[in-house]
Design goal:
10 strands, mainly beta, three-stranded antiparallel beta sheet, 1 helix, 156 residues, 5% helix, four-stranded mixed beta sheet
Amino acid sequence: MARRTEAKPRNREKCTRFRIQIKRSRIHRYGVFALEEIPRRKFVIEYAGERISYPEARRRYGSRPKARRRKPTYLFRLSSRRVIDGAVDGSGAEIINHSCDPNLRSRIRRGHVLFWSKRSILSGEELTVDYKFSKKLPKVPCRCGSPKCRGTINRK
């Protein structure tokens, strides 16, 4: 049976090359933190989960506004027809928070979503990625706290 993300998420060590920890974040709920220094341009973690279609994602999570959802949604767009649901057998990468000045970037390679370090990451630093929500979606306020914050998770 597939494991759904629980109240305090866990990381799967086999999906990461560095020691990381999931704990409370100042950005949002939980976050992923480096437990060792991570050099720049290194593979950090794979975004794992169940591969599903867009209709299945809508069936699971609906089109209800975020404020009315009971569970957090951990979907990553893989292609125009498929998404990865990180809430089912996720690697811990689904907990990585958004930042307008992120230290990770995502790459899709052969159907896998891989997070790579953009710069050196210090031990204890929270791992972040730019979610790059579409301009067409309703604006989602950003709480990253970066001096480069654009005020919204959506692309400008």
